[in-house]
Amino acid sequence: MQESSRTATAKIEKRSLSARGNTLRRLSPLATVLLLLLIWLWISDREIISPILVPPPADVAAAFADALADGSLAAHSFTTLGEMFYGLLLGVGIGLAIGYAIAKAPVLEHVLSPIIVAFQSTPIVAYAPLLIIWFGTGPASKVVTTAVIVFFPTLVNTIAGVRAVSPNLLDVMRSLDAGRWQIFRLLELPAASPVLLAGLKTSSTLAVIGAVVGEFVNPQRGLGYLVTSARNRYDTPLVYVSVLTMTAIALSLYSLVALVEWRCLSWRRRSLN
Amino acid sequence: MKLSLENLAVAFSDPQGGLLPALGPVSLAVGEDEFVCLIGPSGCGKTTLIRVLAGLQAPTSGIALCDGVPIARPMRGFAIMFQEANLMPWRTVLDNIALPLEVAGVPAANRYKTVRALLPLLQLENFDQAYPAELSGGMAQRVALGRVMVQEPQVWLLDEPFGALDALTREKLSLELLQLRSRTTQIIIMVTHNISEAVLLADRVIVLSPRPGRLVADVRVDLPRPRFPEMIYERDFLRLAKRIRASIDEISG
Ligand SMILES: Nc1ncnc2c1ncn2[C@@H]1O[C@H](COP(=O)(O)OP(=O)(O)O)[C@@H](O)[C@H]1O
Ligand SMILES: [Mg+2]
Q1: Is B122 exposed, middle or buried (0-12, 13-18, 19+ CB in 10 A)?
Q2: Domain of A41?
Q3: What are the respective helix, strand and coil percentages of chain B, to the nearest 5?
Q4: Residue B103 contacts residue A178 (beta carbons within 8 Å)
Q5: Is B12 in the pocket of ligand 1 (CB under 6 A)?
Q6: Residue A19 has what pLDDT?
Q7: Is the minimum CB–CB distance between A271 and chain B shorter than 8 Å?
Q8: Same-domain status, A115 and A70
Q9: In terms of CA atoms, which chain B residue is nearest residue A180?
Q10: Same domain, A195 and A138
Q11: What is the overall mean pLDDT for chain A?
Q12: Which residue of B lies nearest to A189 if distances are taken between CA atoms?
């Protein structure tokens, strides 16, 4: 009785300690951002670096307000977000399907690996122009660029995740005479989900890169276009606004997946405690 | 239902490319509602035999039949409890026990009702929302037993089901098993290392030789039913236990 109450107290203490640690950990990135902002202010205030290269935060804020007011920032962001969304859908979807097939039929790996390795080891900027030629100058080519770049981490994680499924649990499902779809839904998907969600986090940040690279190679619309056109006009504050918007999008998407992960993997947190 | 093994043997391929005999050949017929206990040294193929009956392992030679039909895949009405608990770490106790019902397409409300009714018997009432990592070895085994019971099988294949339990829980659960079974006609094939448990529960105790396991003794337990724990002090019980002990000692030299 005493023993258990003592361990209970110890547990509570440990929890409050770790809670304090958590708040600290959560606040520290914010502190880093603030520090960077201060350094930026200081540099532009003293004009240590030319304002063409590092414009003062106030100018950037003004450019941000302008771009917001005339709706251009929203429009370009929306274009990029759309390309990212469809690119993720396509790339993750195909990555999951091919990854699952390879995990279940290792023969496929031998057949497909030359293509996959060749594709993966070529820089995306190198064949992005090719994708423009194939898929046109519209958003489709940017969607495909995004899809290609998110395909690989999805593929690799799907193969690793599905292969790591416990053969003992597979026996349990087989003994219940479960069908293929049931084995996928009730065993393989949940068993692989930690790895899959980790892959999705990587993919979500890569999606921004894919869409923007596509827009750089063929600037029509989107945040990549905004950067290019602002740079051509030496409008450095607008370049900053565009870049920071991309960062915000990447971070939001990453956090969204992290949130999904946190919700889906509660069993893991409890198991690890 | 009737089960029969005819010259059943299983061999596994070894790393050198040869065949390593793991079981048999064994011939055995198990009749309607028989409770059979398998005893044998570890590595003699008990698990392999259970897996063949479960349709998870194909025999290398010979055949396993259920009512004259070869067992080539998991059969309807058979349920297996593995030597390890084999629970899904992302499912709660409740959902782990309910898994067979979910696979069978039983609606959620019904399957939870069925499972909740089983929890007191398994002594898991306060753990329905716990995850497997939060359970002791014995509790995990009880969850695995629940996953078999919920299937209401006609053939129970139990591979050392009470191995991780303390002596008292072990006795309680095994007697519960007997009661459960007395309601309907069921075959139970159970692997155990415990001679007293085997004699107390079974209609027949089969002793297997060291690998590859062959049948060395087939002892009929003619004690009256219902059985109760005090029987282990009776003369007939001791006579049977001694006989089984002797045949085990004989094979292990
Ligand atoms: N999948 C397998 N591959 C190779 N050898 C195996 C495999 N399964 C079991 N064996 C071997 O077969 C023999 C019998 O195993 P098992 O049926 O698990 O024995 P028991 O349950 O009686 O301890 C053992 O020697 C074991 O090493
Ligand atoms: Mg075994």
Answers
A1: buried
A2: 1-48
A3: 40, 25, 35
A4: yes
A5: yes
A6: 65
A7: yes
A8: yes
A9: B103
A10: yes
A11: 84
A12: B90
Structure confidence at residue A7 as a pLDDT band (50, 70, 90)? very low
Buried b (16+ CB within 10 A) or exposed e, B22-59: bbbbbebebeeebbbbbbbbeebbbbbbbbbbbbbbeb
Residues A145, A265, single domain; the answer is: yes
Q: From the alpha carbon of B208, which atom of ligand 1 is closest?
A: 22
What's the one-letter identity of residue A2? Answer: Q
What ipTM was estimated for this complex? 0.88
Q: CB under 8 Å to B205, separation ≥6 — which residues?
A: B36, B37, B39, B195, B198, B199, B217, B218, B219, B221, B240, B244
Task: Please tell me whether residues A1 and A98 are part of one structural domain.
Answer: no
At residue A181, the pLDDT reads 92
* The residue count for chain B: 253
Q: Where would I find the H helices in chain B?
A: 46-53, 93-103, 108-122, 137-149, 167-182, 195-201, 235-251
Contact A90, A144 (CB under 8 A): yes
Query: Does the beta carbon of B44 lie inside 6 Å of ligand 1?
Result: yes
Residue A111 CA to ligand 2 centre (angstroms): 39
3-class state of residue A71 by DSSP: coil
Residue B104, min C-alpha distance to chain A (Å):
8
Domain with residue B46: its CATH number is 3.40.50.300
Work out how many domains chain A is built from and give that number: 2
Nearest CA to ligand 1 atom 6: B12
CB B226 within 8 Å of CB B57: no
Residues A21 and A64 in one domain: no
For residue B188, the cross-strand partners are B35, B156
Mean pLDDT across chain B, nearest whole number?
A: 88
Nearest to A271 among B56, B104, B131 (CB): B131
Domain presence at residue B227: yes
Of the CA atoms within 13 Å of residue B193, those in its CB half-sphere come to 10
Position A172 confidence tier, pLDDT thresholds 50, 70, 90: very high
Structure tokens at A122: 């070529």
Residue pointed to by tokens 């059969």: B75
B206 — pLDDT class (breaks 50, 70, 90): very high
pTM of the model: 0.80
Residues A41 and A121 in one domain: no
Angle at A72 (CA atoms; ends A67, A74), nearest 5 degrees:
95
| pLDDT one-digit tens code per residue, A134-159 | 888 888 888 988 998 899 889 989 98
Q: Report the nearest-CA residue for atom 7 of ligand 1.
A: B12
When divided into structural domains, chain B yields a total of 1
Q: Distance between alpha carbon A218 and the CA centroid of its chain, in Å?
A: 23
Q: Tell me how far apart the alpha carbons of residues A42 and A48 are, in angstroms, rounded to a whole number.
A: 9
What number is the average pLDDT over the span A27-36? 86
Interatomic CA distance for residues B67 and B1, integer angstroms: 6
